Amino acid sequence: MNALADHCQVASREWAGVCSLLETGRQVVLVRKGGVAESAGPGVFTLQHSEFWLYPTYFHEADQGLRESANPAKSSNPEPGWVTISGLARVIELRWLDDESAFSALERFHGFTLETMRKRFSYRQPGLWLILARIYRTEQGVRVPVRPEHAGCKTWIQLEEPLSTAAVRPVLADDDWARTVAEFGQAIGARP
Questions:
Q1: Phi-psi map region of 68: left, alpha, beta (phi>0 left; psi -120 to 50 alpha)
Q2: Which of 61, 80, 185, 186 is most buried (most C-beta within 10 Å)?
Q3: Are 172 and 136 in contact (CB under 8 A)?
């Protein structure tokens, strides 16, 4: 696999609870419905970025729908006006899920409740995009100011300065990651 870029200036907004799960190896899949900004046409979804920082947000976090045992988040930002970025995601695989019957097999790869997955799956048209991402973490997070342009319901944020990836380390060891990728493939099936 190719080395990570030396720096990254883009971040993806994720609920703080989801960031915590990703950065501790308890979640490896991002769940997306897709959106106008990321859609390449009807039925086609592409990500604008294959590597990005995880930008923890508390916007609508009370409604995040994480399983109780998986929910590590507090209900509000511990340091208003600032956010600490410590996780970097690298997209490994993008898969379309068109069958709810796979939810139980996929449960170990995310922290959402079954009800949340069903709501997301059924919203507008049935189906979900699953983004398998290898997560890297730095012990010393980087504090960045929350800017007005970071607010709202958008996924991608352009950081003022690129952040170095030199200190990031994989959350899951190589053997654990390889096993996780194989298990994810089995759980979702061999569908393209």
A1: alpha
A2: 61
A3: no
Contact 131, 97 (CB under 8 A): no
Q: Where are the domains of the chain?
A: 7-188
Q: Which two three-digit tokens encode residue 77?
A: 């930002």
Determine the 3-state secondary structure of 125 from DSSP: coil
Buried b (16+ CB within 10 A) or exposed e, 137-153: bbeeeeebebeeebeee
Question: Exposed, middle or buried: residue 168 (CB in 10 Å: 0-12, 13-18, 19+)?
Answer: buried
- Is this model's pTM higher than 0.90 or not? no
Taking the chain (192 residues) in runs of 10, the rounded mean pLDDT of each run is 89 91 95 62 68 85 66 62 94 91 93 91 90 95 89 84 96 97 88 42
Cβ atoms of residues 123 and 155 within 8 Å:
no
Which pairing describes strands 39-41 and 44-45: parallel, antiparallel, or unpaired?
A: antiparallel
Closest C-alpha among 52, 53, 76 to residue 64: 76
Angle at 108 (CA atoms; ends 105, 113), nearest 5 degrees: 90
